[in-house]
Write a structure and sequence with these properties.
Layout (H helix, E strand, L loop, with lengths): L8 H10 L9 H10 L2 H9 L7 H8 L3 H13 L3 E6 L2 E6 L2 H11 L7 H12 L4 H7 L8 E4 L7 H4 L8 H6 L4 E5 L1 H9 L9 E6 H9 L4 E3 L1 H14 L2 E5 L7 E5 L5 H7 L12 E5 L9 H5 L5 E5 L9 E5 L9 H4 L6 E5 L10 H12 L2 H5 L6 H14 L2 H8 L4 H14 L9
Antiparallel strand pairs: 1-2, 3-7, 4-5, 4-6, 5-8, 7-8, 9-12, 10-11
Helix pairs in contact: 1-2, 1-3, 2-7, 6-11, 7-11
Length: 437
């Protein structure tokens, strides 16, 4: 490893991870996390990898690492979830894992004698919640594109809206559209358990994966394979427990759904505790209190995972209640958990006046996330060996980081054109299939 002498490879790795769709600001805690999870050789490999999905042959060319050594390093990294290997188009493709969803989740989902779960829980908590830099870097500029979106509980939609709910916001459609399922430990709940902060009775094993994501999780013992009926039962129990369903923020090929409680879930705490309302993107619905049947019991307010419902003294003393429920529409994520607990069906989900446009595919979400985070250039110019690409990456990156440019490309007027241009660019590279992932 003589080539590693004279430089802190973990600092280089930190820069690599910070250049992905989830920003990872550097500090001593991140340094400690990376040193615990990666060997120096593994860190060196990830630094040399392109940001996007690459075949084994493409990695050989990009990293110039001998085939047998490269295979051994990749096997070790994928087993830990630090590199993902997805079987797409009958071939495995590899990519470095971002901090979220990736390094944090897969580390806290692993079990075994060699996993320092308690120590890692403390480090991740210190890094992600102990100061404002991580949340601020990812949500501090009013970002619109989170990894997660709220999946509404269909059972609490108002009458007319129930028949108009879009397929991608239905659990029933999600289950029908996939043929492979897995369930694993909830990383957030597992972390809070080891910190002594888990106050709920929700089981640790809840996190759900589908399709090729389930295949990845099963192959690396990060989750166990389950049947369609067991997955359906998992969702039914979550409904009974009043858990928030946090789905992959895409309309096609949803890969995961988290079953979230308000005491443990990082994104929910990002809203309720730290004040970042876009940590979870809203569904196309919003909570509404129907006045007549409301008895002012306050169960909706108690159930709300982000404190979006408050109780105040009844405005009309002639009503048969002492309190009125009020919904803060500026932060309500439209999950429907409040309505699940309403004994009189006064609390319901109704359509938002303005439809929320969720990314169609993972490709779209990734492009939009990176645009917002100022890292899109790393997806466009992905070859870390190329001097010309490094120059273009720095030049284009500086241009795309300009606030007016980002706002224009994210606007309703130009967003579709921007995504079309990105798709055309990928197609010219012979990887048009990526746009359907």
């Amino acid at each position: 490893m003589g080539h590693l002498v004279g430089k802190d490879i973990f600092r280089e790795l930190g820069r690599k991870i910070d250049g992905m769709e989830t920003r990872a600001p550097w500090n001593d805690t991140l340094h400690a996390i990376l040193k615990e999870l990666y060997s120096e050789q593994e860190a060196d490999l990830v630094v040399k990898m392109p940001y996007g999905l690459s075949t084994f042959a493409e990695l050989e060319q990009a990293t110039v690492i001998e085939r047998a050594v490269l295979r051994k390093l990749l096997d070790g990294l994928t087993a830990k979830g630090l590199v993902v290997d997805l079987q797409l188009h009958d071939e495995f493709h590899y990519a470095p894992s971002p901090l979220v969803v990736g390094i944090f989740e897969f580390t806290m989902m692993r079990l075994g004698p060699n996993v320092k779960t308690k120590e890692m829980a403390k480090l991740f908590h210190e890094y992600m919640e102990g100061n404002d830099s991580f949340l601020g870097a990812n949500f501090g500029q009013g970002e619109q594109i989170s990894i997660f979106r709220a999946l509404p509980h269909e059972e609490v939609l108002s009458g007319s809206d129930y028949f108009e709910v879009l397929d991608y916001e239905k659990v029933s459609t999600l289950l029908a559209d996939n043929d492979r399922f897995s369930i694993g430990l909830c990383s957030c709940r597992h972390e809070k358990l080891h910190l002594g902060e888990k106050t709920c009775d929700v089981p640790l094993e809840k996190c759900s994966q589908f399709g090729y994501a389930a295949d990845f999780m099963i192959r690396h013992n990060l989750s166990r394979e389950v049947s369609h009926s067991e997955m359906a039962d998992n969702f039914a129990r979550s409904r009974e427990m009043g858990l928030v369903l946090g789905a992959d923020n895409v309309r096609k090929n949803v890969k995961f759904v988290c079953h979230c409680c308000k005491c443990c879930c990082g994104p929910l705490l990002g809203i309720s505790k730290f004040g970042y309302p876009n940590a979870i993107v809203t569904s196309n619905y919003i909570s509404e209190i129907v006045d007549a049947p409301c008895i002012g019991c306050g169960k909706c307010a108690k159930a709300c995972p982000i404190n979006a419902i408050s109780m105040s003294a009844a405005a009309n003393p002639e009503k048969n209640r002492k309190q009125d429920a009020q919904v803060d529409t500026s932060i309500c994520i439209g999950c429907g958990v409040c309505a699940l607990k309403c004994p009189t069906k006064a609390c319901i989900l109704v359509k938002r006046e303005q439809r929320v446009i969720h990314p169609e595919t993972t490709f779209e979400r990734l492009m939009l996330q990176c645009l917002e985070k100022g890292t899109l250039q790393n997806q466009i110019f992905a070859n870390p060996k190329s001097i010309s690409e490094k120059f273009l990456s720095a030049f284009i990156g500086g241009f795309l980081r300009l606030t007016p440019v980002k706002k224009a490309l994210m606007s309703d007027t130009l967003r579709s054109r921007f995504l079309t241009a990105m798709k055309q660019g990928v197609a010219r590279q012979g990887k048009g299939w990526l746009t359907d992932v």
